[in-house]
Amino acid sequence: MAIVYDTYQREAPLRLPLLGSDDPARVVAWRHGAAVSAATFLAQVQAVAATLPTATAAVNLCEDRYAFLVAFCAIALRGQANLLPSSRAPQAVDEVMAAHPGCYALGEQALDPAPRGYRQLPPLDGAVAGEPAAPWPTIPAAQMVAIGYTSGSTGTPGANPKSWASFHASNAGNLTRLRALAGPRFSIVATVPPQHMYGMEMSVLLPLLGGVGVHAGKPFFPADVAVALAELPAPRVLVTTPVHLRALVESGIALPPVATMVSATAPLPVELARAAEQRFGAPLLEVFGSTETCVFASRRAAVDEDWSLYDGASLHPQPDGTLVQARQLDAPVALADIVSLSDGGRRFRLCGRHADLLEIAGKRASLADLTRRLLAIPGVRDGVVFQLGGGDALGVHRIAALAVAPGLDEHTILDALRRAIDPLFLPRPLKLVEALPRNETGKLPRAALLDLLGQHDDE
């Protein structure tokens, strides 16, 4: 099948606006219970941008979502790219910084230890001196404004650059779907980090380009989500994950009325989707995408097994996956997902995906990368990280590890891993063995790994 490349980015204007609205009074964010206007936001962005050093890129480590927005735009206005490691673990940050010589790190907190060249944002709560410079800023359409990192099947985190034109294009698709459910104006509470591409699209780009206001926090517990939603005006949109959704449903906590909910990062069981819709009286939109592609499809999982493609997106099945074409992509991107198409190619059903990839609560990793980090620990001679069977209702499986490390104990290895990986992906159990059951080609049969783990569990 011939692939027709979309012309969106080639025909994009030379420069594109930093904000999708030139209304200085419109609300960009709610922070500490108060609304932050576009005029205040831009003045703070420009003040921070004036203090940043000359560089090509900066690691954006801000946890407060409003601080992330300010830092993201300040970095972009300086012509630099926001580096978004797949984890905030010091080793992951160090690896990304090593790949970008001369870069620095930026955050709102005092970190100890801090990455090299770390800069702390000034307080963003006080009054801003002066108004934003006029006219309101624009960014070159082709400028690389972000590089998202995700662990692929090779075990090496892959860099995924995003231009400002590509972000404008991907945001248009998300905004169209959400406006159909929530109306032309809405506000967002997100439980996912802004560094994750899903969090970037739903809680950074929508406020910047879609005229949407976002809550500055990252609520985790159900009670925190309820408080955050109550601080925003209706209509409200909750951007979350299956893990958080299940906690909300089971908590029994009443939420302020929401217009719609959005879920991603892991498969959404239909039972959970239906329970959430019934419990909170709002439709639940599940979106489909990746760090490589951004979101390009969605479905209402409670009533539909098939996904609907965004305008301008198309899929091209391959023997080992699928090529994705979308307006935000310069060229088709290959994903490991296997799909079957229907409705003239405008809808699809997932038939499977690469088993190596892990997605838990908005965080991503791969078994190969986790194994690589295990093997990098001094004293570990051999090792492997793998998933156990019998996943929970969300399809999340426990992660286990076997290691050959004479002279070390399990606690020492786990302590070393805590510095290298996100705690969500720490293998438990981790067992020390004399040798791994490699076959004649050096591979590790899954059955042999489970047998060896079972032997040690019985001891």
Automatic annotation (TrEMBL):
Ligase in keyword set: yes
Name of the protein described by the UniProt record: AMP-ligase
UniProt GO MF annotations: ligase activity
Start and end residues of each AMP-dependent synthetase/ligase domain: 116-308
Keyword set, alphabetical order: Ligase
SUPFAM superfamilies, alphabetized: Acetyl-CoA synthetase-like
InterPro entries per UniProt: AMP-bd_C_sf (IPR045851), AMP-dep_synth/lig_dom (IPR000873), ANL_N_sf (IPR042099), ATP-dep_AMP-bd_enzyme (IPR050237)
Protein origin, superkingdom: Bacteria
Keyword presence, Ligase: yes
